[in-house]
Design goal:
The protein is of the alpha+beta class. Strands 1-7-8-9-10-17-14-13-12 form a nine-stranded antiparallel β-sheet. A hairpin with a 4-residue loop joins β23 and β24. The protein is globular. Residues 48-298 form the Glycoside hydrolase family 65 N-terminal domain.
Length: 749
Amino acid sequence: MPLRHHLLPGIALGLLLASASARATATDPGFLLTGTAENFGTYFPSYLANGYFSTMTSVRGTEGNRAYMVAFMDYKPDDIARPAAIPGWSEIDYNPGGGWLNSTRIDKKIFADYAQTLDMHDGTLSTSYRFVYANKSTDIKVTTFVSQASNHLAATQLAITPQFDGSVQLTFPIRLWSEHQPRFPIASMSGDEMIAAVIASGQTLDNKPVPTPDRAAVWYPGYTRVLASDGDTKELTLWLDGRAEHGLTMAEAAAIGLPPGLAIESVKLEKGPYKLSLDLTARVQKGKTYVFTKYIAASRQDWGGDARDNVALAKAARQKGFAALLAEHQAAWHELWTSDIVVDGDPDVQRAVHSDLYYLLSNSTVGTAWPMGACALTPGYAGHAFWDSDSWVFPALLLLHPERAKPIVMFRARTMQPARERAKQYGVKGTMYPWEADPETGVDHTPHFAYGVFREIHVNADIAIAQWQYYLATGDDAWLKQQGWPVIREIAQFWISRVTYDKAQDRYEIHHVTSPDEAYDDVPNDSFTNAAARKSLQIAIKAAKLVGAAPDPQWAAIAAKMYIPFDQKNQRHLDFDASVPHDKITWMGSSLAWLMYPNLDLPMSPQVRRNDFAFQLHELKVHGDDPNEMMMVMLAVGAAELGDSKAAGEWIQRNLVGFLKPPFNVRTETVANNAGYILATSAGFVQSFVYGLSGLRIEDDSLAEAYAPVLPSGWTSLTLKRITFRGKRYDIRIDRDAGGKARLTRTAL
C-alpha cells in the first residue's frame, strides 16, 4: 500500500502495551492515582504538562481537551490578559460502526472495567476500558504524555482490540476553539457591574458542585486565532500557525503513526472552522490489537519555530517511535524524583505530597524567566503571577529543585521596568510590582473589580525576600550582583517612599494597606506587611555590602523603628492597628499565622508565638468561613514550630480532606470552592514538610535547624531526599531516637 512506508516506526509500538503493564506494576503505589467508574460523576480534570505546554485530562482519555502554553496570553481590548487556549492536540476518536467513542454517554456499562491512572513517577496518563456499544465491543487503551525530555513534544497513543471483524473509522483532529462567549470588559468593570453582567448571562459566581469549576464566568480562556492550517494525507501530517488575540504567535503540528499492515480503505483531510483532522477508514480483525499514535510538536513566539519547523519535529518523533520518546520522558521524570519527600508510615500523606510535587514540577521550567501562574497552565485567575509565585511556590522548589525555582526570581528581574513605571503611576520611588502580573510582560493586569488590591503591597517585600533566599541557598555572588541586587535595591527605595514617620511615637508606619486577609482592604499598619517590609530593608543592607555598594542610611533607620502592632496586655501581635475593628467574616479569620510562615518567620518569644497561634485558631472558628487552604497549610507549620507533633499531624491530615478533588488530587482553593489548580496550596503543603516538620530555615550562614524537628504519631520517618544547598546535596531524615524523641540527621551525598 502507498502509505505503508510511513508506518514502519509503528513496529516497535506494539511493545508498549506489555511495557506499560510492567511499569504500572513496578511503580511505587505512592506515585499512582487511579480513577474508576465511581468517579464518573465527580471527575475533576487534571492536566499533563512539562512547564511549557499542557493538555487537560478527560474521562475517556481520547476527548478534545483544552490546552495551554506558558505565558501565551490573549490581550483583547478592554479585557485583562488571560491565557489563550491553544488548539487541542490530544484528541483521537474511534467509531466501530455504531457511534463515535467521544460522543457516547459516560456510563459504567458502556465503559466497562474502567480505570484511568496518573503515574506521577513516569508523568503519564493511562486509560483502559472495554467500549461496549451498539452490539459491538472494543478493548481500549490510551496513553498520553507531554515530554519532560523534549519540551516541544507530546504524544497520545490509542490501542484498540475489536471483538469483531469489519470496517472502523478513526479521526485524528486538532481542535480549533471558538472565542469564549460572553466576554466581559473586565479591565473596566466594577465588582457590582461584574456580578450583574454574569447574572445577565445566565451564570452565577456561587460555589458549584464538583466537578463544575467555580468562577468560570470570570476565568475563561483567551482566544487563539488560526492564521493558516493544512494537512497531508500521504505524509499523515497536520499543521497550523496561530496567534493569540492581539498577542504572540504559536504553531502546532501532528504526525500520525499507524500500525503495520493496517488495511486502509481511505484517508481524508478535513478542514473546517473548528477542526483540522485526518480521517481514516480501515478494516480490522477480531481479537487483533491495532496501535495508533499521534505525535505533537508545539511552539510559541520566542520559544521554538513555526508550523514548518514543528512538522519536522513531529515527523522526527514519529521516526524515533513512541517507545523511545516515552523512555526518554520517563527517564527525565525519574531524574526529577531523585529529589523527593518520603513519608514512611502514612500512604495517604505520601500520595498527597507526591501529587503536590508532581503539579509543581509539571509547571516549572529551567533556564527561563517565566513565573508560575497562580493556577498552573490553566485559565484560573487568568494565569497571572501573584505573590503565590514568590512566597509559596518558590520556597517549595528552592531546596529540592533550585534550577526550577530560579525562573521565578529571574521573572522579577526581567520585569523591573514595568514595575518602575507602575511606581511612578502611584507616586512612589523604586519599583512597585503589581498584585497580578502578566507572566509574559510583567505589566499590571489586575481586574478592575479587584482594584483595591493595589494596596496589597506586601508583594514587593515578598519578592525581595525570595531574591535573597535564592542567593542564600545558592551562594551565587555573580547572580546577586547582576540580577538579585537591582531588584532588592529598588524595592528598598519603594519602602522609603511608602512609609510615614510618626514623630510623636518615634516610629515608621505604613498606611492604606490591604491585609493578606483581603477583606481588610484599607487599613493602617498591617502587621504582616510591616514585618515583611522591615525584613526586605534589612536584606537590602546585607546585599549592598556583599556587592560593594553603599546602603542607603534610611534603610537601617526605617527598619529599626518599623511599627509592628502588638497587644501588650495579651502578649500577642495584632493583625493591624488597634484602631481598626477585627470583626469580619473571612477565609482566614486572621493572618497572624502568616507571621510564622517560613520566609518571614518574624522573631518572637515562644510565649508570643503560642499566643499568636491560639488567637489564629480562635478567629478561624469565630470569624472564618470555608477556610482558604493557604491558611490551613500554614497551621501545620505553626504547630510544628511550637513543637506540637500531634497538632502538626492533625493539620496535615486536615489538608487531605475536601481540598483534594478526586481522582487526581487536584487542590482547590477551599473545600466548598472549586477554584482549582491553586499551586500555592500545593506548594504550601510541601513547605509544611520542608520547613515545618523539619524546623529548617534558610539563614544567612547556613541551612539552620531553627526549631526542633517533629514527627507525627504513626510515622516511622520523614526523609527530604537530595536537598541542595550551596552546591552540596544532602538527605535529611527525621526519625525517633531510642526514647521516642524526634531527631534530624543529615547525610552528605
